[in-house]
Amino acid sequence: MMQMNDCESNSQKDIYSFFREDELENLKVLKRVTPIFRVENIEFIPNLFEFLNNLPNLKAIVFIILKNVFDDQSVQSLFVGISQLNGDRLDNLEILAEGETLNSNLLQFTTQMNKFPNLTSFKMNLFNNQLGVSSNALVNNLQNFAHLKKLFLNFGFTGLSSVEIKSLGKVLRKLCFLEKLTVVTIDSNCQDIGSWFQFCQGIESLHNLRSLFLLMDRSNISHEVGAMIANSYKELVQLRKLKLWFRLNEIKTDTALLFVNAFQKLVNLQQLDLQLDHNLILDRLAFKIARLMIVSSYQTSTSLFMEGEAEDIGGTTEATLDKIDEILDNFGYDMRKNILQLIAYKKRISDQIQNSPCLQQLSILF
């Protein structure tokens, strides 16, 4: 059910949701609205799109297509309806879909983006969808989005093959107005250097890009691929926000430092979120001790890594270091060596980050 207050309070909000046809009339009183459509009943669809085309000031729509609700014909009807919306007014469209019935329908829809000349933002969330042979064609059709400023692509757990990663790179070169890009792909397992090269070339060509978010968990990010990714964004001088999430990839120290070294090239960078795995972290206690040692030993790192926590085990720097040495002796030489390597690694990172004068927000997870 849709939850609404009186008209005065509604007019101050941007996002509303409704699930029943008899609630459509409520939208007419709203001056500014972003409906969220949780599509559950195919009989509801024809009247829905007829109503939307007559809705004043409609700028953005989010469609949520539930898993195992529609058959192929129902999904087809839905996308036909979307493609027949008044595209001259719409500037923000999001499709969040679950299930395995989207192959040909979603593919066909992406060929019709010229019907939305004013669309500046497109989000496509696909969860547990087996796109199969349509996946590469779908990626290629993204070139029809050449006028976009914001593009959000979540391929979920389907991953992207080497062919699709290569195609996406070629498509990005044609999105010359893009200011914000998000790509989410898990379990890609692409080992083809040439495909990654094309992908990184595509990112490097986005000279107007202000925000970049790459989430590529379990995607086989090798040192060579990491180097190409770092080189791809270090020349994006307009970049304000950078998020790199390469979790469960066993990122090594030398690879991670390539990412960090590229940060100092981004003179306008204001927000950084870097999440990597590190093979030197043996357990949580070792990680905690390492962070405490950084706080104690290197004042330049204090604001970045657990500020003030050193006082928990000693107070002064000398007392803290003595206490940590005592703890490390109980771990033995191998653990001590690993922790010290991790400390040296993070110290080098902190030195590099100091060279980013505009940095306002930092999040680093190893």
Summarize the structure.
By secondary structure, the protein is of the alpha/beta class.
Q: What is the total number of structural domains?
A: 2
Percentage of residues in DSSP E strands: 15-25%
Number of separate strands: 11
Shape: elongated
- Calculate Rg over CA atoms: 25 Å
Which fold name is given in CATH as the topology of the largest domain?
Answer: Leucine-rich repeat, LRR (right-handed beta-alpha superhelix)
CATH homolog superfamily of the largest domain: Ribonuclease Inhibitor
Euclidean distance between termini CA atoms: 42 Å
Summed over residues and divided by their number, the pLDDT gives a mean of: 69
Organism: Tetrahymena thermophila (strain SB210)
Protein name: Kinase domain protein
InterPro entries: LRR_dom_sf
Overview of the molecule:
The chain has 366 residues and is of the alpha/beta class. The chain folds into 2 domains: 7-276, Ribonuclease Inhibitor (Leucine-rich repeat, LRR (right-handed beta-alpha superhelix), Alpha-Beta Horseshoe); 284-352, no CATH class. The protein is 37% helix and 17% strand. It has 12 helices and 11 strands. The protein has an 11-stranded parallel beta sheet, with no helix packed on it. It is elongated. It starts with 6 loop residues before the first helix and ends with a strand. Residues 1-21 and 279-317 have low confidence and may be disordered. It comes from Tetrahymena thermophila (strain SB210). This is Kinase domain protein.
